[in-house]
Sequence to fold (473 residues):
Amino acid sequence: MSPTVVSASWLPAAVATAEGGEGGFNTPGVANFWWPVIPFDGTGPWAVTRPALVLLLSVGLLAWFYVGATRKLTVVPSKNQFLVEGSYNFVRNTIGRDIIGSKDFLQFVPLLLTLFTLILVNNVFGIFPFIQFPTMSRVGIPIVLTLIVYITYHAVAIRRKHGVLPYFKSLIPPGLPGWLKPILFVLEFLTYFVIRPLTLALRLFGNMLAGHLMLLVFIVGGEYLLLEGDNLFLKFSGVLSFGFSIAMTFFELLIEFLQAFIFTLLAALYISDAVSEHH
Amino acid sequence: MITASVVAAEGTGYPSGFPLLPHPGEMIIGIIAFAILYWLYKSKVVPRLEELYAERAAAIEGGMQQAEQAQEEAKAALEQYTAQLAEARAEANAIRESAREQGASIVAEMRAQAQAEASRITEAAKRQVEAERQQAVVQLRQEVGSLSTTLASKIVGESLEDEVRQKGIVDRFLAELESGDVRPEKVAPAGQDA
Fold:
């Protein structure tokens, strides 16, 4: 990949119109999410990509905000502290304490807070002016987060149930007839070891990818219709498409918050399953 | 431009055909990003906030304790006040009762006194009347004596006064008259008797 191509693909709309000028409309697709900034080699498996940079930027912002705002805490909160406490309370009480239970939740609060704030900020970056890239639409990053949750809840469960075998045994609910036990074990095993992580990662990834792709279609398509449309109807459709993209942006904001909430909530739910004494 | 786009198409995506294949570079940076943020939260943000919560809970608890104490004090004051009120009321009752008793006794005493006075006055009056009567009797006796002697002397023609006084005739007669020894007799006509 040559540097000129990289710089040309910085703005997908520009790519689309440039290509559209040559050979019609180039539909935005998954390829638009591949965005290497510093490619180390030809194919780019180790490239530093735009989502990676956005992710690091979000970590910097979150660290600056949370560490800075908690430096001087007062019993009566200031404006910044109010915001910090609001988000912290939400994760700590609504997600952590209410789901994991007041006995064990405190040790998982840092994990839940990291998940929630990181996902939320990165999701909102999807519509944030000039950043406009949802990091979670790159499947690798939700997979990393899911892996962390996956390892955590299995580790906690194995420790709580005193070993791997008791953990497997605890997957089968007590009081079942003998012939049902293997079937249920397979189902439960699949749920805990395959379906849960898969859905957790793909739900976030899919929502962010699809949402952003839809915005991209409306914006890039609208632009193409407006610039290249050869009659008034097509040009008007382009304006309509732009208007709809604005409405969709607000809808996206809701989805972005919801996905961050759901991911954290499910992580807490899986952990609460792990810390509970029986099943 | 066509060649450029073809190159871009071949180069886009990692690898171009598999959008679901995670990009290793992004995963590594994802792990690093998560680790940094998690470490910061665990070592700084969460402990600080938890400390604040503990502080706040303590402050609220302290406030509540203070309020409780104030309430208890108020309750004690109210109890004391009520007790004092009851005491005062009881005292007032006792005073009223004793006043009534005292009044009744005063009235009784007064009545007794008045009665005594009245009987004393009556007695005195009675005694006075008696004395006067006695005096009148004595006086009358004297007068009757002197009158009768005077009368008798007139009739007889000489003074019997000294003799009468010496002999106590009149007194004796009167005493007899009183005791009923002498009965008044029907006096016969003067010519007949003489």
User: Anything to note?
Assistant: Chain B has one domain: 25-181. Residues 53 and 59 of chain B are 10 Å apart (CA to CA).
